[in-house]
Amino acid sequence: MRHAMPSATPSRRRRRLVVGLGAAGAAGAVTALVAILVPSASAATLFSDDFESGASNWSKSGGTWSVVSDGSKVYQQAKADSELARVFAGETSWTNYSVEAKVKGLDLSKGLAGVAARASGSSTMYRLALTSAGKAELQVVKGSTITSLGSAAVGNPTSWHTLKVDVSGNTVTGWVDGAKVASGTGSLAGAGRIGLITSYASAEFDDVAVNPLGGGSATSATATPTATKTATATPTATKTATASATATPTATKTATATPTATKTATATPTATSSSAAWPKATSEKPVTATIPVSGTVDGGNARYFGSGALGGDGQAEGQDPLFKLADGAVLKNVILGAPAADGIHCSGSCTLINVWWENVGEDAATFKGGASATYTIDGGGAKGADDKVFQHNGGGTLTIKNFQVSDFGKLYRSCGNCSTQHKRAVVVQNVVATAPAGSLVGINANFGDTARISGVTVVGKKSLDICVKFTGNDSGKEPTKIGTGPDGVNCIYNESDITFK
């Protein structure tokens, strides 16, 4: 934990105890050290982390993150060319709170680094960031749309600064080193986790603290106020004399090493509508190795999330899935939390009913069956996909219906450069798409792909490429875009099938 400094002085200098004391002086110094290193932690603290014990409280998505030494332990994102690197912690149910952290830009020449609040997806959040322009800027991030609520100049953004974001009701306020940067009204979801983020930048982070603000429920997981620094009898300690205790957050995840899904023999349930409310998780199930699914498995709305080998960067290529479905398998009533790794793989025909992705990892689901395979996604939803949500690598037909998706790059992509190519078909029915960054579906016209689309509502954009045609290949090269819009052959829909709100 960094030594608490006056707000106008974001220095990270350390106090050192004087050595060579007499017996009485040594005893006094030990007493003082105990008082400094093990203060009374505030019961109001929701969460704190100084990374001295690692970064197990955080889920990663993009970038290269590691705990390194910079005077003491800090959390570093080292990949300066990462478009959007972020780590998340806390609870999706947190509403009114204040989050602060010390931030040091290592390379801000092309981007930004900062702190996020009320993150409800990988690309939906309020954030306060140090930028390449030498400013601190308070922003509303919703997919590819970034709105500035105000900014202020910051001296030497590549030194340590304390950034704080307050969220209370619809009001968002940003502070740097105790000085107010900006305040404004936001329209994002009223609850969400905290985050540390970079975009085309590298940075270090330390001393994260979350405290509740008045005006509503702030917590579903209060940190246990146990100080992590321990005093010794040797009065020569060189560790920072910390003014506030570092609370050890109580883990809210159930430490189930091998989550077992309950199989049922019930009839297929009715799927949720495309406007249904997101379900609340009934339990937490960490997944350390891919779960095989055959027959019908009902998850009972448990939240499954990657852990151990499956707990790495959420957008990294080549990850294993949380679930692997055998030919003919049905998976229903499951929530995939973060990190979601590579989501779900279908080896053949499969059905996903009321499956919810809280934060899409590499892909939400990948379909790998043969030419006659049929895949159905009925109900459920997905949030926070930087690129595609559903990846179609095999053959056959994928139907996506009664589904909601937000903050995403594209809903569906027929693989444009797989080594083995197929004629593929996608059917999109009754889908609500909010804040898309790219397009709805992408197909390969040269392989005879078809997309049949109806009942689509697009929220937050006045126009969108609904169906994009490419010339695919099997050489691994980037496919060539050749057109958009309905043509009655590959992209089969009418303009009246699409509603913009």
Write up what this structure looks like.
It is an enzyme of class 4 (lyase). It is a single chain. The protein is mostly beta strands. It folds into 2 domains: 41-212, Exo-inulinase, domain 1 (Jelly Rolls, Sandwich); 262-500, Single-stranded right-handed beta-helix, Pectin lyase-like (Pectate Lyase C-like, 3 Solenoid). The chain has one helix spanning 23-37, and strands spanning 47-49, 59-61, 65-70, 72-77, 85-89, 97-107, 112-121, 124-131, 135-142, 145-153, 160-168, 171-176, 179-185, 193-199, 202-212, 262-263, 284-287, 291-293, 296-306, 323-325, 329-336, 344-346, 350-357, 365-367, 374-378, 381-392, 396-414, 424-444, 450-459, 465-471, 480-484, 491-492, 498-500. It has an 18-stranded mixed sheet that branches. Strands 1, 3, 4, 6, 11, 12, 13 and 15 form an 8-stranded antiparallel sheet that branches. A 7-stranded antiparallel sheet has the order 2-5-14-7-8-9-10, with no helix packed on it. A hairpin with a 2-residue loop joins strand 7 and strand 8. The longest helix is centred in the first third of the chain and has 15 residues, at 23-37. The two termini are 47 Å apart. The model is unreliable at 1-43, 215-268 and 313-317 (pLDDT under 50).
What labels describe this entry?
501 residues; mainly beta; 2 domains; 8-stranded antiparallel beta sheet; calcium
Report the principal-axis shape: globular
By secondary-structure content and strand pairing, the structural class works out as mainly beta
According to CATH, what is the class of the largest domain? Mainly Beta
Question: C-alpha Rg, in Å?
Answer: 25 Å
Gross CATH architecture of the largest domain: 3 Solenoid
Distance between the termini: 47 Å
Kindly report the name of the CATH homologous superfamily of the largest domain.
Answer: Single-stranded right-handed beta-helix, Pectin lyase-like
What are the segments in which pLDDT stays under 50 over at least 5 consecutive residues? 1-43, 215-268, 313-317
* Largest sheet data: 18 strands, mixed
* CATH topology-level name of the largest domain: Pectate Lyase C-like
In percent, how much strand structure appears in the residues? over 45%
Counting DSSP E segments of at least 2 residues, the number of strands comes to 33
How many distinct helices? 1
Question: Could you report the average pLDDT, rounded to the nearest whole number?
Answer: 81
Tally of separate domains? 2
Q: Summarize the amount of helix as a percent range.
A: under 10%
